[in-house]
Hints:
Shape: globular
CATH superfamily: START domain
Protein name: SRPBCC family protein
InterPro entries: ASHA1/2-like_C (IPR013538), START-like_dom_sf (IPR023393)
Domain Activator of Hsp90 ATPase homologue 1/2-like C-terminal: 12-152
Radius of gyration: 15 Å
Largest sheet: 7 strands, antiparallel
Strand order of the largest sheet: 1-7-6-5-4-3-2
Strand content: 35-45%
CATH topology: Alpha-D-Glucose-1,6-Bisphosphate, Chain A, domain 4
Structural class: alpha+beta
Number of strands: 7
CATH architecture: 2-Layer Sandwich
Order of helices and strands: EHHEEEEEEH
Family: Belongs to the AHA1 family.
CATH class: Alpha Beta
Amino acid sequence: MSRTDRASRVIAAPPATVYGALLDRESLEAWLPPEGMRGRVERWDPRPGGGFRMVLTYLDPVDSPGKTSDATDVVDVGFAELAPPERVVQRAVFEADDPSYAGTMTMTWHLAAAGDGTEVTVTATDVPPGIEQAVHEAGIASSLANLASYVEAVD
């Protein structure tokens, strides 16, 4: 059964600034890892049909075992659609031996002007069943909080 997870947040920066942070390697490394993780981009090709490979490392793997190894989640992300400054659609595949993390999850980042800021809504479809919904939505919300802090400091 297909599952959809989502989270949203209003960010005090214009859509173009937020969109730029979605397509900048150093920016992604800074804000995308949720609380308790750090990230490193290994491959970067920011165009439709391109993508990136990110290694997410748990700062305390004892309480949060990784999908790829005890301390890491490795995810290959393809850019399925880039529609500046409104939408980024990504296809994410986790590197994992556990079949409960198999499959391609689609992450749609929708940006809409909201007063002086941007409402960012992230919708994840076809979420692998091994990812708990509450944990996943909290992780998305954490990444959105990081994104807000990152772009609001820059803007």
